[in-house]
C-alpha cells in the first residue's frame, strides 16, 4: 500500500480520494486491496481472463508476479504471447520493450472511454441477435460480464462505430489505472498475480453516480444491483468538508482584514484593548 503510485488518490487516507471523507460512524465500502490470481491463456486468443465490464469506482491494478507454465511447451507460450501483443495493435515502444528488454508480459488490457459504453452495448446486442440469442429485460451485456472482445469484435467495433480503445501490456511491477465507468477487459498472457485497490477521484465522481443509477435498473438478483460504494454519502460528506474549509478560510480572511483596519485607526499601532477613560 505504501508504494502505490499517486498516493493522494490511491491511499485510503489520500486527500483526493473522496472515499476517505466518510466519517468513522459509517461502515466504509470495501475498496481493497483485492488479489486476482489466474493462469495464462496465450494459447487461446478468443478467451479472456476477465470479460468486458466496468467498475463503479476508479482502480489501480499492480502486477505482482508473472510466470510461464513449466508443464507445457515453454517456447510456444512465449511465441503466442508475442503474437497476441502484435495482433492487438500495441505501439512500437511496447513491442520493443517486451522483446528487446526481455520484460515478461503478464496481461493484455483493452480499456475504452466511458462515453463509448453505449456504442459497445449496441454492438454486443446486435451480435447476440445475429447468433440467435434473446435479449433479456433488466440485463446489460457489459454489466453481465458475458463477453470478451476478441480481434474480430474489436475490428467490428472500430469499423461500424468508430470506437477504438487503449491497448496496454502490463509487465511485472506495472500499475494500470482504470477510470470509473470505463469498459475494460483483461487477458492474461502468462500466469499472473495482480493486486487492485479502488478509490474515488473527484474527476470521475460523476461517472460513479451515473453507474449507481444504471445498476438500479438491473434485476434484483444481479450482483451489481446494490450500491455498495455509498456514492451519495461520499459526495455529501466531501462537499460538506469542502464548504467547512472554505468557511474557515473566509472567516480567517475577514478577521485579518478587521485587524488591519483597527491598526490603521490607531495610527499604525495595534489596539491596547484597554477601556477608554472619559473625564466629565
Describe the structure in your own words.
The protein is α+β, with helices and mostly antiparallel strands and 280 residues long. It has one domain (7-237): Cupin (Jelly Rolls, Sandwich). The protein has helices at residues 7-10, 74-87, 92-100, 117-130, 151-161, 205-216, 231-265; strands at 34-38, 50-53, 58-67, 105-111, 166-171, 175-178, 184-188, 191-199. A 4-stranded antiparallel β-sheet has the order 1-8-3-6, with no helix packed on it. A 4-stranded antiparallel β-sheet has the order 2-7-4-5, with helices on one face.
Notable characteristics:
single chain, 280 residues, alpha+beta, 4-stranded antiparallel sheet, 18% strand, globular, LSDs-like, metal-binding, nucleus, JmjC domain-containing protein, JmjC_dom
Number of domains: 1
Residues in β-strands, percent: 15-25%
Number of helices: 7
Widest beta sheet: strand line-up: 1-8-3-6
Order of helices and strands: HEEEHHEHHEEEEHH
Derived from helix and strand composition plus strand pairing, the structural class reads alpha+beta
Number of beta strands: 8
Low-pLDDT ranges: none
Text of the CATH class? Mainly Beta
pLDDT average, as an integer? 85
Quote the CATH topology: Jelly Rolls
Could you tell me the radius of gyration in angstroms?
A: 27 Å
Alpha-carbon distance between the two ends? 75 Å
Q: What is the CATH architecture assignment?
A: Sandwich
Helix content: 25-40%
Q: Name the shape in a single word.
A: globular
CATH superfamily: Cupin
Keywords: Metal-binding, Nucleus
InterPro entries: JmjC_dom (IPR003347), LSDs-like (IPR045109)
Main location: nucleus
Region (Disordered): 255-280
